[in-house]
């Protein structure tokens, strides 16, 4: 069975992909010799995902899945965007507390999580409108819409999950893993790639 390498060192993200892609044998970057960090200098999520997927495919020789994701806040002109993981030094908590500070007394709390997925190392073939082939990669984008809370809530998830509320008022960090996968930006971006993996890898037998 062919393996698909997930281009991340984030254990939480790898766990999410294992849940989102049942039937696919996923390989971790820890199974391969260390590689130089990829300079994520593209201006958008898609560009950064492509850079990482191509680099990991070249390094491992296997099909590689990479994503770039982040939080876009309307009142902050879509910041932190591609800089979400680097918005402040320190931990996830340091980053979301900085953002909450910037949002103090801000009435417009609208925001969205965005995720771009790129898969390198699989051949091009006819696609539909939900997924494109660009620069040697299959690319899919997904979004999750919500609002920035006044304070953090919940202990599940990671990143900005404790300050991002969804339609029922709970934050992403208050959802179960199954509830989060059903609506998350990563879950939405993953759905269109199922048929590509099924037809081009010949190993996918599950469904989302």
Describe the structure.
This protein has a single domain (3-201), classed as Alpha-Beta Complex (Maf protein), CATH 3.90.950. The model is unreliable at 203-208 (pLDDT under 50). It contains six helices and eight strands. Strand 6 (132-134) and strand 7 form a beta hairpin. 28% of the residues lie in helices and 23% in strands. The chain is globular and about 50 Å long. Strands 1, 2, 3, 4, 5, 6, 7 and 8 form an eight-stranded mixed β-sheet that branches. By secondary structure, the protein is of the alpha+beta class.
Roughly how many Å apart are the termini?
20 Å
> Which spans of ≥5 residues are poorly predicted at pLDDT below 50?
203-208
**Beta fraction:** 15-25%
CATH architecture classification name: Alpha-Beta Complex
Overall number of strands: 8
How would you classify the helix and strand content by structural class? Answer: alpha+beta
- CATH level-1 class: Alpha Beta
CATH fold category name: Maf protein
Number of domains: 1
Summarize the structure.
The protein contains 6 helices and 8 strands; from the N terminus they run E-H-E-H-E-E-H-E-E-E-E-H-H-H. The protein has helices at 11-20, 45-60, 92-102, 177-183, 185-190, 194-201; strands spanning 3-6, 25-27, 63-73, 79-80, 110-120, 132-134, 137-148, 164-165. Strands 1, 2, 3, 4, 5, 6, 7 and 8 form an 8-stranded mixed beta sheet that branches.
């Amino acid at each position: 069975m062919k393996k698909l390498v997930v281009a991340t060192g984030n254990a939480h993200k790898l766990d999410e992909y294992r849940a989102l892609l049942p039937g696919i044998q996923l390989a971790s970057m820890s199974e391969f010799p260390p590689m130089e960090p990829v300079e994520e200098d593209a201006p958008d999520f898609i560009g950064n995902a492509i850079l990482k997927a191509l680099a990991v495919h070249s390094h491992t020789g296997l099909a590689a899945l990479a994503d770039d994701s982040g939080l876009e806040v309307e009142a902050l002109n879509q910041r932190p965007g591609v800089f979400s993981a680097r918005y402040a030094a320190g931990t996830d908590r340091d980053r979301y507390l900085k953002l909450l500070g910037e949002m103090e007394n801000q009435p417009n709390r609208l925001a969205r999580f965005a995720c771009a997925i790129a898969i390198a190392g699989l051949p091009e073939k006819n696609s539909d409108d939900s997924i494109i082939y660009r620069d040697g990669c299959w690319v899919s984008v997904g979004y999750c819409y919500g609002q920035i809370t006044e304070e953090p809530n919940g202990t599940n998830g990671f990143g900005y999950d404790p300050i991002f509320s969804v339609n029922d008022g709970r934050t992403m960090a208050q959802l179960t893993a199954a509830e989060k996968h059903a609506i998350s930006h990563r879950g939405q971006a993953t759905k269109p790639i199922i048929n590509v993996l099924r037809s081009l890898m010949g190993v996918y037998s599950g469904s989302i």
